[in-house]
Design brief:
Blueprint: E1 2-8, H1 18-26, H2 30-39, E2 42-44, E3 49-50, E4 62-68, E5 82-85, E6 89-94, H3 111-122, E7 139-145, H4 148-159, E8 164-172, E9 180-189, E10 192-205, E11 209-216, H5 223-231, E12 252-260, E13 267-271
Parallel strand pairs: 7-12
Antiparallel strand pairs: 1-4, 2-3, 2-4, 5-6, 6-7, 8-11, 8-12, 9-10, 10-11, 12-13
Helix pairs in contact: 1-2
Length: 273
């Protein structure tokens, strides 16, 4: 559950620091308010920016707090999750349940926060940016640049679809119709409809599940999840397009990428499976 608290600020209350303002208005302890500020739950609505400094002198007309009713865990990058690293970029494994970037209620629980802390430990001054995202329930590989020029090259790669993506998808075991399939259909997201193409190849089965290699040829939101639900069957654990629960692991893992190195031009294929 997420509680939203809006604090209007009158002209008489401006120039008061953020910590004292929220403490006075909410009646919460300074320790609790400090935690809200530190985890990134407090926003200046006029500038739509996250406020992280408790000593900030408030000038906004309205402060909003997105206060989760459960503890926020600060994300620390496990070095064992670094699949590839050189002087220009790294590729890390994102566990399921970790957001790629900050949410309205916190930024310290995100993957990009862990990357920023890791860069700080290396003495790297560049501020890590999110180049692409995986859904929170999806696990798998995420790419981060180590400099602004490399960041811009990767942005171009993703924008022009110059990076080939590989996913592992898992469904309940059903009679196989084909070992290779192309799902082609128009998908809607937030009122816009765009064509989408997904290539699917059967890999193997276990006692209860089928495993597929999936290569999306377009990049629509929830494309793989929607295509499996519409054309085959929902992915294991997909509570949005199937019958899974919110606590279940989603049967979708980004296992690799193929692209040209942004600096030396060498063809690279990184697979973690």
């Amino acid at each position: 559950m997420l509680k939203q608290i809006t604090i209007p600020v009158s002209s008489k209350q401006t120039k008061i620091n953020l910590l004292n303002l929220i403490t006075q208005k909410t009646g919460m302890s300074q320790e609790k308010v400090q935690q809200w500020i530190y985890q990134g739950s407090v926003w200046d609505l006029s500038s739509k920016t996250r406020l992280k400094n408790p000593d900030y002198l408030v000038t906004s007309s309205e402060i909003k707090i997105f206060a989760p009713e459960y503890p926020v865990t600060e994300y620390t990058l496990n070095k064992q999750n670094i699949v590839y690293e050189d002087d220009h970029f790294l590729i890390v494994f994102k566990p399921a349940g970790i957001p790629t970037q900050g949410t309205a209620y916190a930024d310290i629980s995100s993957l990009v926060y862990g990357i920023k802390k890791y860069y700080e430990s290396l003495g790297l001054l560049y501020q890590a940016q999110v180049l692409h995202r995986l859904d929170m329930p999806t696990s798998g590989l995420v790419i981060f640049a180590k400099s602004k020029p490399v960041e811009m090259i990767f942005f171009q790669y993703f924008r022009e679809r110059l990076i080939k993506k590989y996913y592992l998808a898992v469904t309940d075991k059903i009679p196989l119709l084909k070992k290779r399939m192309f799902f082609t259909s128009a998908l809607e997201w937030k009122g816009k409809t765009k064509s989408a193409i997904t290539a699917v190849s059967y890999l193997h089965s276990t006692k209860n599940y089928h495993h597929y290699l999936v290569i999306p040829e377009t990049g629509r939101t929830h494309q793989i999840r929607k295509h499996f639900a519409n054309h085959l069957q929902p992915l294991v654990g997909d509570c949005q397009y199937g019958t899974g629960s919110r606590t279940a692991l989603l049967g979708l893992i980004c296992i690799g990428y193929q692209f040209f190195h942004p600096v030396n031009g060498k063809k690279m294929k990184i697979i973690n499976y």
